[in-house]
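Recall that a protein's primary structure is simply its ordered list of amino acids. Everything else, from secondary elements to tertiary packing, is in principle encoded there. The following example makes that idea concrete.
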Amino acid sequence: MPLESDPISGIIGNSAAMQEVYRVTRKVAPTSATVLLTGETGTGKELVARALHELSNRRTGPFIRVNCGALSESLLESELFGHIKGAFTSAVETRTGRFEAAHGGTVFLDEINSVSYQLQVKLLRVLQEQEFERVGDTKTIRVDCRVIAATNVDLMDVIQQGDFREDLYYRLNVIPIYLPALRERSDDIPALVNFFVQRYAEENATPLARVTSSALKFLTQYDWPGNVRELQNYIERALVLSDSDEVDSNDLPQHVRGLAPVRIGRGDLNDTDSLCSALVAQGIAESGEDSRSVHSHVVNRVEREVILQVLRQCQGVQTRTATRLGINRNTLHKKIDEYNLQDESR
């Protein structure tokens, strides 16, 4: 019988942070408690949601995933609760909703922060009473399903902005499970690299490639803003582009090797490229060393200047700043603390 902290099938990593995830997941899975999964994009929230289902007494029932951020308010309401024929113009037949389809199983509500304020009222009723009505109908439907929700933003911030109901938050946050970012569990990177290399070889019927120690060193030192998903993409890219049966450091993107600044945002940030070039040159001149040796120092300076610049343009509004930079709110908050930009963020 596995220990609570033992790895869960399908999830890679044995770091202390992941052992805590395994422990809580195994302890909570047999219950019917609602679970809120938090963490940055690409940290594996759906994998943990599936593990909670597979380790529960509902494993023989359906596992229904709904991406709340991918649908408009009206479409999401119909998707979740169903509708009757004639409820609206395109409702040519009665449709069963996801909650009804998940009877006896689990509903996974991804990007729960995207649900409109109005729809949150109906969602709260399902959580509290396990009942609802289809769109356009008056007949009450009762269901027995477990709810697991996930978000990559701080819901307390969304509550303060007036976009998320506080009572719904507390109803969802019965059992919180935090999924650590990859940079917070760098000890797991070698195991993840081996897993993706092996999976690529199996999927493409190719020999198992070897990852050199030089490449692995860069992979473990990189910050991974895109987390496990970004690592997977870069491993596949390296395997495709490699001219041999091994992955060397030259097969990795330049910014992973420290030869170019990490892009932390999208769009024009008032000549950020010129800023990067100037700071790289300045860093090399100050140290008298090559670009690789000063990479970490220079990238930190570039990152701080870019964040500071965008904070000022957004009058210190962190949500707007995070959107402009193309990073999530939690990451921005950590960077503000790291670079002592609290005054600029107010």
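The chain has 15 helices and eleven strands. The two ends are 51 Å apart (CA to CA).
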